[in-house]
Design goal:
Order of helices and strands: HHH
Largest sheet: none
Shape: extended
Oligomer: single chain
Distance between the termini: 58 Å
Helix content: 40-55%
Number of strands: 0
Strand content: under 5%
Length: 91
Amino acid sequence: MFKEAVELEVAWGKYITQGQILGLTDAILEQYIQYLADDRLSSVGFAKLYNVTNPIKWVDDFSKFNDQKTNFFEGTVANYSKGSLSFDDDF
């Protein structure tokens, strides 16, 4: 099932990007999806299928930018801009 899912995700990723994202080739996209599949498989106790490295490490850093490590209901949100909206009803 994972192999088929990876094939479908790779095909979808290639279709969406159409080779139009600078620095993101079809080969890099495919390797990244394989890397993610291996990561998910190993996290649930299965053997890796592809044994590839992460070709775009900056994506992990970018995706963790807003990662909140505390319980949502117990933590204080501090990673958004305060006071950026104006609710002035005067016309």
